[in-house]
Amino acid sequence: MDFLAREGSPIPAELWEIIDDAVVSTARKILTGRRFINIYGPLGAGIQSINVDNLAELEESEGNISVIKGRTYQHIPLIIQDFSLLWRDLEMSGQMGLPVDLSPVFHAATQCAIKEDELIFLGNEEFGYKGLLTEGGTVKLPISDWSEGENPYKDISAGLASFIENGIAGRKALVVSPGLFVQLQRIQPGTGTTEYDRISRLLDGNIYSTPVLEGNKAVLVCSEPQNMDLVIGQDMITSYLETKNLNHYFRIMETILLRIKNKQAVIVFG
Fold first, then answer.
1. Residue-level pLDDT at 50
2. Block means of pLDDT (10 residues each) for the chain, length 270 residues?
3. Where exactly does CATH 3.30.2400.30 map onto the chain?
4. What's the pLDDT at 185?
5. For residue 18, what pLDDT is reported?
6. Using alpha carbons only, what angle is made at residue 135 by residues 133 and 136, rounded to the nearest 5 degrees?
7. Which residues contact 153 (CB under 8 A, 6 or more apart)?
8. What is the C-alpha separation between 99 and 188, in angstroms, rounded?
9. What CATH class does 139-222 carry?
């Protein structure tokens, strides 16, 4: 079944290829969560739910009926973003031999990528999805004033010490708000080294910033697959919606779900 409705659309294969390249290249520049969280999938567009395990409670109960405790099942949400291409623009491109203006595609892909990161970091309260910063039971540590002294380095070192105490080992990543990212660029007096460089050495360079975090927000994770992963049913792709007033309407969509399996592998500063 062609659920993307491409085969019956008036869009030629060459233009579909250009649109796909634009969506993928734009999303790669924006997406932050995928840079450090392991991908589970893609599983296929038809996969609608998946198990989410809590490793601290995971066990199989015995009796007349056997069930797995610490396991729930969640629906994999659908993220969408629509855009349109005007028929006159496509006609001019064909008649004049000019490249198609893909500004609407770039904008829509950017918005879709931001929505994905919002789901990963903040979840969605309306539909009951939790993100890295909103999941209950994660480790919470106070955040110092990162505009003063060695406070950023001390805070992240305290987070790494918490991982060691809880037996959390593996690849670490720090994600900060744009405001905190700027404060990490301060040069420590007498060292010639920024706080960013010092912390980067602790984390093998895995420091990221995303616009979905506001204010003084930061999260430190051990992103090994036994601790968390990002379930992808249908990866980001474009479908054809309709022709209206001769103009062409499209929808970028994907199905994703963040699974946090070990809450001690997530440290939220705040």
1. 96
2. 87 96 97 98 95 79 72 94 95 89 97 98 96 97 94 97 96 98 89 92 97 96 97 97 96 98 96
3. 13-132+230-262
4. 95
5. 97
6. 125
7. 195, 198, 199
8. 49
9. alpha beta
**Hey, is 84 helix, strand or coil?**
strand
Considering the chain, tell me which residue range(s) the CATH 3.30.2320.10 domain(s) occupy.
Answer: 139-222
Q: In angstroms, rounded to a whole number, what is the distance separating the alpha carbons of residues 16 and 255?
A: 21
Tokens of 56: 């601290």
DSSP 217-269: -EEEEE--TTTEEEEESS-SEEEEEEEETTEEEEEEEEEEEEEES-GGGEEEE
d(CA 40, CA 12): 32
User: By the 8 A CB rule, do 57 and 70 touch?
Assistant: yes
Cα angle 186, 191, 193 (rounded to 5 degrees) comes to 45
Q: Could you tell me how many residues make up the chain?
A: 270
Q: What is the largest CA-CA distance in the chain?
A: 74
> Residue 1: what pLDDT?
53
Q: How far apart are CA 224 and CA 184, in angstroms?
A: 25
The answer to whether the bond into 12 is cis (omega within 30° of 0) is no
Whether domain 13-132+230-262 has CATH 3.30.2400.30: the reply is yes
Per-residue pLDDT, 198: 94
